[in-house]
Design a protein that fits this description.
Number of helices: 8
Helix content: over 70%
Largest sheet: none
CATH topology: N-utilizing Substance Protein B Homolog, Chain A
Number of strands: 0
Number of domains: 1
Strand content: under 5%
Oligomer: single chain
Structural class: mainly alpha
Radius of gyration: 14 Å
CATH class: Mainly Alpha
Shape: globular
CATH architecture: Orthogonal Bundle
CATH superfamily: NusB-like
């Protein structure tokens, strides 16, 4: 994946986290990020798709994740929850992105933003999701 797409995910995780915690309208969060970031440094359209897609599909994403986690979605650390939702969205709504890329990007985001060993949890959850959601690709 391109560096610009990775950076779009990076910003999207921050924005989704902000949306989860502050409860601001997604369009407001979108505007805040686009007003403060260098728009040439990341794929703006992909950022917008992720940021708007996660809340718009939240019930479906959480329903899929529910089968892959060992506790309620709401009890997961908010940073890791944002990353899992982002990864689930990409896994389910962007089949053109290989599942290994989705998992790797989520793991890397967790290493940057999450708890010390959080990347292991995110890896395990998204691996389970890949086996459910992309059986032919992930060998589920």
């Amino acid at each position: 994946m391109s560096g610009k797409r990775t950076k779009a995910r990076h910003h999207a995780v921050q924005a989704i986290y902000q949306w989860q915690i502050a409860g601001h309208d997604v369009s407001e969060v979108d505007s805040q990020f686009l007003d403060t970031e260098d728009l040439n440094s990341f794929e703006v359209d992909y950022f917008k798709d992720l940021l708007h897609g996660v809340p718009a599909n939240l019930d479906a994403l959480d329903a899929e994740l529910k089968h892959c986690v060992d506790r309620s979605i709401e009890s997961i650390d908010p940073v890791e929850r944002a990353i899992l939702r982002l990864g689930a969205y990409e896994m389910l709504r962007h089949p053109e992105v290989p599942y290994r890329v989705v998992i790797n990007e989520a793991v890397e985001l967790t290493k940057v933003f999450g708890a010390e060993q959080g990347h292991k949890y995110v890896n395990g959850v998204l691996d389970k999701l890949a086996r459910r959601a992309r059986k032919s690709e992930a060998g589920g």
